[in-house]
Write a structure and sequence with these properties.
The protein has 427 residues and is of the alpha/beta class. The protein has three domains: 170 residues, D-Maltodextrin-Binding Protein, domain 2, CATH 3.40.190.150; 127 residues, 3-Layer(aba) Sandwich (D-Maltodextrin-Binding Protein, domain 2); 69 residues, OB fold (Dihydrolipoamide Acetyltransferase, E2P) (Beta Barrel), CATH 2.40.50. The chain contains 14 helices and 19 strands. A hairpin with a 2-residue loop joins strand 13 and strand 14.
């Protein structure tokens, strides 16, 4: 009798295992059938030439072989609001069939809870695929600055540049001034590349809120040649490479409410470079994409290539990110709103950049991505283009930046090398 029951139990378990195996095989076949001969798009919600997009570009080279059906992967651009435009589009317009996913800024998933203006999505409903690296932002000054340590920043003024009032480079020094008594003066209106040049010119002391991984990608020479004073990490835990060398912000903050706000800010850094899809994607395809992402992160050829491209790899899986997002959404709304208040310009201690515009007649040598290149006083200069902020005229008619071509004779109004062109008027 006992043997008969045992056989029956074994038969039931074997049947369940067989059904699970059959289901897994069916899912794999369904996924393979969907992706075979298809093109999968990874949309980047950030600058095409920036460090975030660099992660999308390397992922598209390695992920196809780990997805059943081996689709072709391309990288597209849907920029605006550090990924807000892309997240809105994925949530409300884009396809949900697994034919695309995107890359957004680390804090964007939590944005509807912290700063809902302009958001039309819920981060808890998005489909998190994974992140290739956690993010640790740093505060640094140029090596010639008098402010060389965090203690110095509490005693004397340091002028830091940033792009906009809501950028990390504005938010973090505001928090430091309020919570830790530093004396940072914030000047808004700089492109990150312009900040580097402004430091070299002695126009700025530094930048407070730039990713350590981004610095290693964008300007490794600054690190190699010891051109920077690294004065603080915006974190509650140290980056392995900076441990014992650069203090972390949380060590200087004692007020319980301030610490809770920082926990919210630093919590999003754990997802660093998040790849995310729209809500309600087919479960089998989500599982396949997450698995493929995880497999790429272990691929030795990929890891060697990432090292060559100076891309930091410290991955977080999609399931883990989803749990983190859900946990961060539990932060009381009042505290989240207080945190968002640091995105507004302070009444004292900051101002907009006063730009000295140059107007030059040049021949465009090259147009690549969002930049035009030309020779000026024997040196190659480049000016950044913006679809919204750069006014373009060609042959007397209003035009678009994409119409600019090498060989055109143009008058360019811009603030200097790397700066954003305000007007480009071509014959």
């Amino acid at each position: 009798m006992k043997h008969s029951r045992a056989r029956n139990v074994f038969a039931v378990v074997a049947g369940l295992l067989g059904a699970t195996t059959a289901m897994s095989a069916a899912n794999a076949d369904e996924v393979a059938d969907f992706y075979k001969n298809k093109t999968l798009t990874i949309w980047s919600g950030l600058s095409p030439g920036g460090s975030y997009t660099a992660y999308a570009l390397i992922l598209k080279d390695y992920m196809p072989k780990y997805i059943p059906g081996n689709p072709t992967i391309i990288v597209g651009s849907r920029t605006g609001g550090s990924g807000r435009v892309l997240a809105n589009w994925m949530a409300k317009v884009g396809p949900r069939d697994g034919s695309m996913f995107g890359l957004i800024h680390e804090r964007m998933g939590l944005e509807p809870h912290v700063y809902p203006k302009g958001t039309r999505f819920d981060g808890r409903e998005l489909t998190w695929i994974g992140s290739m690296a956690k993010q640790k932002s740093v505060c640094y000054t140029w090596h010639t600055s008098k402010v060389k340590t965090f203690d110095d920043a509490q005693k004397m003024q340091a002028i830091v540049g940033t792009s906009s009032s809501t950028a990390t480079g504005s938010v973090m020094p505001r928090m430091l001034n309020s919570m830790a008594g530093t004396k940072f003066k914030i000047i808004r209106g700089y492109d990150p590349q312009e900040v580097f040049l402004a430091m070299e010119r002695g126009e700025l002391d530094g930048l407070c809120g730039y990713g350590w991984g981004s610095m290693k990608t964008a300007r490794p020479d600054f690190i190699r040649d010891k051109k920077l004073n690294l004065i603080l990490q915006f974190s509650d835990k140290s980056h392995a490479e900076l441990d014992g060398k650069v203090p972390v912000m949380m060590d200087y903050i004692t007020n319980p409410r301030d610490r809770k706000m920082l926990s919210l800010v630093f919590g999003t850094q754990e997802m660093g470079r998040p790849f995310v899809g729209p809500p309600a994607m087919p479960k089998a395809r989500v599982a396949a994409l997450r698995n493929a992402f995880d497999m790429v992160m272990k691929d030795p050829v990929f890891l060697a290539d990432a090292k060559k491209r100076r891309l930091e790899i410290d991955p977080v899986g999609g399931v883990e990110i989803a749990k983190l997002v859900n946990e961060l959404y539990k932060t009381p709304k009042e505290l989240a709103t207080l945190t968002a208040g640091y995105r507004k310009p302070a009444k004292v201690g900051e101002s907009k950049r006063k730009i000295k515009w140059k107007k030059v007649d040049v021949t465009l040598a090259k147009k690549k991505g969002r930049y035009i290149y030309f020779s000026l006083d024997g040196q190659t200069q480049r000016a950044k283009l913006s679809g919204k902020r750069t006014k373009v005229k060609i042959a007397g008619k209003k035009s678009k930046t994409k119409k600019l071509k090498a060989g055109m004779m143009c008058n360019v109004k811009f603030p200097g090398h790397h700066g954003m062109a305000r007007e480009v008027t071509c014959k």
